[in-house]
Amino acid sequence: MTTFVSVLYIVAFALFIYGLMGLTGPRTAVRGNWIAAVGMAIAVIATLLLPGMGNWWLIALGVGLGTVVGVPAARKVKMTAMPQMVALFNGVGGGAVALIAWVEFRDTAGYAHEPLYVAIASLFAAIVGSVSFWGSNIAFGKLQELISGRPITVGKLQQPLNVVLLAAAVACAVAIASGGDSQWLIIGVLVASALFGLMVVLPIGGADMPVVISLLNALTGLSAAAMGLALNNTALIVAGMIVGASGSILTNLMAKAMNRSIPAIVAGGFGGGAAAGGAKVVEDRPVRSTSAADAAIQMAYASKVMVVPGYGMAVAQAQHAVREMADLLEAKGIDVGYAIHPVAGRMPGHMNVLLAEADVPYESLKEMDESNSQFPQTDVALVIGANDVTNPAAQSDPSSPIYGMPILHVNASRSVIVLKRSMGSGFAGIENELFFDPKTSMLFGDAKTSVGDIVEELKAL
Predict the structure, then answer these.
(1) Residue 19 and residue 347: Cα distance in Å, rounded?
(2) What's the distance, Cα to Cα, between the start and end of the chain in Å?
(3) Which of 2, 121, 270, 383 has the CB geometry, 3.0–4.6 Å to 226, for a possible disulfide?
(4) Closest Cα to residue 262, out of 309, 191, 211?
(5) Are 431 and 396 in contact (CB under 8 A)?
(6) How high is the pLDDT of residue 3?
(7) φ, ψ for residue 255, nearest 5 deg
């Protein structure tokens, strides 16, 4: 039976990796998800076949509860709320690992008669899993707007307090690994780690929250791998390392896309709805408004139109109206493309998924570098809710908090039309200099309604 379980694990790992490969492109993402899910099902079955497995009613209860909660939540969640669901589900994984570490401490009487590496791996999993759980809950609260997206700090005491909390968690862990078996020690590990997770994520502003979610996801994977080592469970080790490695790579890519270092993100203080320190806020600058009719005429007589989607399009669920508009323009012989910034929306691939839902051809989706090379030949750039990723201040204003962040060069187009509800700022909390460019016209209102009005005007031309 042990050999059979090992074979099943190998099959599961192969499916994990093959499924992950499928997630590299929109065309294969759904298939990749299903393949990885089948792999996880095989890994679960293999684990249940291990000798000594018992408590079947308790296992069935856990599986049943997870299914009842998870399936409806995943089916009903809106695409705009997907990042916070990812944060919440990821946090649950970290919390589960922390609880398993606690159970192992109790079952082994403080890891008595266990090899030292088991104690170290389990305690590492307890610390990291607890940090991930509580940090992910704060990330969820900020994205769900249950907590203010602004940085929440205790001032100059923030970093010293973080150091003290981490040191307390590590000290309790060292005491346990040295032979301590008091229940208060493991509780100290979990509580200090929980407070550390809270105090690390609270000072991070809304603009950095997508990167934080990815980072916490990687930490959950590492904690699972460590617990797999402690439990001698190969499935946990491999799955955890895959999550940890892929999450780390994604975190690094997202940080580069924002021109932010990961230590700077963890230090906090960026974004959240108010004007960020160092940003220029100029009152009462004139902007040029336009109408749906004028926007339709402008695009109808263009040769090339680039649509720049952002979170505003996601909130308004305007992707289907955008596709209808693009079809009308293409019927007139106009070249229509979509410029996608790596961190547009609230998670990588957010815009790709929304546009794919509306059956926008994948070849029409242009990555940032390709888009930027095409903007100088673009007659009209239609910006739908994208804010910080189109802000020229990232290139021109050294005092701006987003200075140096790679952006979409929509201001290089011959003309720009921006669809927004208001002049409100984006996640970074600063004004978008693009709005005041003489080439820019603002069409205020709900994105779906505005695009729908443009569609009707195009039909009438």
Answers:
(1) 20
(2) 72
(3) 121
(4) 211
(5) no
(6) 84
(7) -65, -40
Rounded CA-CA distance 426/429 in Å is: 5
Q: Which two tokens stand for residue 399?
A: 């005092």
Strand residue runs (E) in 274-423: 304-309, 335-339, 365-366, 380-384, 415-420
Rounded distance between C-alpha atoms, residue 255 and residue 262, angstroms:
6
Residue range 224-242: mean pLDDT, rounded: 91
> Would residue 388 show up in a list of annotated catalytic residues for this protein?
yes
Q: Residue 309: beta bridge partners?
A: 384, 385
- What gap in Å lies between CA 351 and CA 365, rounded to an integer? 9
Separation between Cα atoms, residue 35 and residue 24, nearest integer Å: 14
Active site residue: 388, 397, 446, 453, which one?
Answer: 388
Q: Give the position of tokens 């809304």.
A: 206
Tokens standing for residue 52: 């000594």
Q: Strand, helix or coil at 339? A: strand
Helix (H, G, I), strand (E, B) or coil at 385: strand
What one-letter code names the amino acid at 168? A
The pTM for the full model equals 0.79
pLDDT digits (tens, 9 = 90+) for 99-120: 999 999 999 998 888 899 999 9
Half-sphere exposure of 82 (CA within 13 A, CB side): 16
Tell me the pLDDT tens digit for each residue of 263-293.
777 766 555 544 333 344 445 677 888 999 9
CB within 8 Å of 337: residues ≥ 6 apart: 304, 305, 306, 307, 364, 365, 366, 371, 374
**Residue 262 token pair:** 């990961």
How many other C-beta atoms are found inside a 10 Å radius of the C-beta of residue 282? 8
Q: What are phi and psi of 306, to 5 degrees?
A: -115, 125
